[in-house]
Amino acid sequence: MMRRGDVWWIDFNPSIGGEVQKVRPAIIVSNDASNKMMNRVQVIPTTSNTDKCFPCEAYIEIDGKISKAMADQLATVSKLRLKSKIGTLSTQNMLDVERAIKVQLDL
Q: Model pTM greater than 0.85?
């Protein structure tokens, strides 16, 4: 089962315009009750491009490497797009991702 805070390889293809592309890690941010019952999850894609970090982004560590979570690319995806689990974010990293989501959604 997928859980909130887990990081998975996700196939975002096909994509259109400015949507995130290719197979890349993404963080599951939907709640665990939905993750269990629904056939889709909400995710935040990540990037290895860490030169700049905007308020709607957060630095995270995945498998010993620094990446950046992009809350401006928050997406709902079918569970069929999830390929394999990479790991789980630390509590502090997840708090940083939650802060970025709040900024992006003006919560």
A: yes
